[in-house]
Amino acid sequence: MRKVIVGAMVSLDGVMQAPGGPQEDPTGGFHYGGWVAPLVDEVFGEEIDKLFGQPFDLLLGRKTYEIFAAHWPYAEEGPDDSIAKAFNAVKKYVATRKGLELTWKGSVALRDAADDVARLKQEKGPALVTQGSTELIQTLLASDLIDEINLFICPVVLGKGKKLFGDGAAPGAFKLISHRVSPNGLVIAKYERDGAVKTGDFAMEQPTAAEVARREKLQREG
């Protein structure tokens, strides 16, 4: 069974939009494109290499695919040669309901992201790794199809932009597998899916009269 692995660069307030540059995705009036670039350091590079050092295929949303297809096929022999060669060599699964022209060699269209990814997970093959692709990730979260989340949490607050988590994610627990803090303050954490959400209770065994009144007020207010 194949794993679905999310790789996500996020701000402290959960924004993923346009980490790589000002022209990457300015939609919605986003003015902070390139917010990750000043924070890149040796630890960041090592952890990216780990993420893509395992056998993998790419799993991308339409907009991220268009960004990647306009860049990575032309990036070999440059400063990111190793990543470019890896991305160009692997299969690219693209979630798109539109008639997107798949110009990048090795690209395969997925017309129903949830159903198609669920089917791919049952096949033999390498892990399916996302980058960017906020809408796709939220679809996968809603269908509980994500096995692992790799977060690169950057010490910035962006205020607005496309976010990693939205309403509608299937509830579930995750377990921290590894973590590092980079010299530039990035927190890099890997989480694996870990069953159902567990709950507890800090309330007194016998609630006070004030607490009973508070609960009754909440029920009345709906």
Spell out the blueprint of helices and strands.
Layout: E1 4-11, H1 42-51, E2 56-61, H2 62-69, H3 81-89, E3 92-95, E4 107-110, H4 113-121, E5 127-131, H5 134-142, E6 148-154, E7 174-181, E8 187-193, H6 209-221
Parallel strand pairs: 1-5, 1-6, 2-3, 2-5, 3-4
Antiparallel strand pairs: 6-8, 7-8
- What percent of residues are in strands? 15-25%
CA gyration radius, whole angstroms: 20 Å
Calculate the terminal CA-CA distance, rounded to whole Å. Answer: 44 Å
Largest sheet: 8 strands, mixed
**Averaged pLDDT:** 95
State the low-pLDDT regions, or none: none
Q: Structural class from helices and strands? A: alpha/beta
Number of strands: 8
Order of helices and strands: EHEHHEEHEHEEEH
Q: Which overall shape is indicated by the principal axes computed on the Cα atoms? A: globular
Put simply, the count of helices is 6
The helix content, as a percent range, equals 25-40%
Domain Bacterial bifunctional deaminase-reductase C-terminal: 2-187
Organism: Halomonas sulfidivorans
Protein name: Deaminase
